[in-house]
Design a protein that fits this description.
alpha+beta, archaeoglobus fulgidus dsm 4304 fold, 8-stranded mixed beta sheet, 5 helices
């Protein structure tokens, strides 16, 4: 697993946009070539009024969907909050958490967007490119795109489109519960992204690896500083 980004993180917003436009040309949206045995759920957030980034990574064994490892990391942020450039704030600390794993994941499920992004480079796409791992974005809300509300039953879906281009899928993961926004990040296609999200569901709205990472990060945030 590669963990070294091909660019700096402490860049201006204009430089970050240029990096995104360059990196998007390197994305490979293709079917997953093998069944992963280890799937990582990734969640990132902020504390200290946005001055510190934190990341949680929880590694699951598939198909048992049993957790086998978890890691947490914190780092000072390197860029102010700018819509569309969140990955420049989140990925450095995610890479730190991934580097602490004792086993290498074969698929990343990220709390956030893949190509369902104004420049087609949300956190799952950006992180997938850096690590060269298959990656899927699972957003709790829409960042960009138009869609028709899918049916109310689990598994029902509708395409998410931007200017006529399909950028993701609006997927109902539980009956009569708000859908999630699924998009491929890297080394994954639209159909595979939905398929793997469905495979990683239990009885909750979010895929189990992401749900566990979110829970771990939230619990850690509530702990008092030593």
């Amino acid at each position: 697993m590669k963990l070294q980004a091909p660019h700096r993180w402490d860049v201006s917003p204009a430089e970050a946009v240029a990096i995104q436009r360059e990196l998007r040309t390197q994305l490979r949206l293709e079917p997953l070539r093998h069944t992963p045995r280890l799937i990582a759920g990734v969640d990132a957030g902020f504390e200290d009024a946005g001055r510190t980034a934190r990341a949680a990574v929880v590694l699951y064994q598939y198909p048992e969907l049993e957790p086998v490892e978890e890691q947490l990391a914190r780092e000072p942020v390197r860029m102010p909050y700018i819509p569309g450039l969140l990955s420049f704030r989140e990925i450095p600390v995610v890479l730190k958490a991934l580097a602490q794993l004792h086993q290498e994941p074969e698929l990343l499920l990220c709390d956030g967007q893949g190509i369902a992004h104004p420049r087609r480079l949300g956190i799952a796409a950006h992180l997938g490119l850096i690590t060269d791992l298959p990656a899927i974005g699972v957003g709790k809300s829409r960042l960009i795109g138009d869609f028709q509300e899918p049916g109310t039953n689990r598994g029902e879906q509708s395409p998410l489109k931007d200017k006529g281009e399909r950028i993701g899928t609006v997927l109902r993961t539980r009956d009569r519960v708000k859908p999630v926004f699924v998009s491929p990040g890297h080394r994954m296609d639209q159909r595979g992204a939905v398929d793997w999200v469905m495979r990683c569901l239990t009885r909750y709205r979010l895929p189990e690896p992401i749900r566990a990472a979110d829970r771990l990060a939230s619990a850690w945030r509530r702990k008092p500083s030593p």
